[in-house]
Amino acid sequence: MGNLPRSVVSRKPTDTMRIILTSFAGVLFGFFIGVSFPTLSLTKFNLSSSLLPEADLSKLEGEKTGILNVPVSNAPTESPHLNDTSKIWVSSNPRGAERLAPKIIAAESDFYLHKLWGNPSEDLTSRPRYLVTFTVGYDQRNNIDAAVKKFSENFTIVLFHYDGRTTEWDEFEWSKRAIHISARKQTKWWYAKRFLHPDIVAAYDYIFIWDEDLGVENFDAEEYLKLARKHGLEISQPGLEPNRKITWQMTKRRDDREVHKETEEKPGRCPDPHLPPCAAFIEIMAPVFSRDAWRCIWHMIQNDLVHGWGIDFALRKCVEPAHEKIGVVDAQWVVHQSLPSLGSQGEKYEGHSPWRAVRLRCRKEWFIFDDRMKKAERAYFSSMGIDPPKLKSL
Ligand SMILES: *[C@@H]1O[C@H](CO)[C@@H](O)[C@H](O)[C@H]1NC(C)=O
Ligand SMILES: *[C@@H]1O[C@H](CO)[C@@H](O)[C@H](O)[C@H]1NC(C)=O
Question: Collapsing DSSP states into helix, strand and coil, what is residue 366?
Answer without folding.
Answer: helix
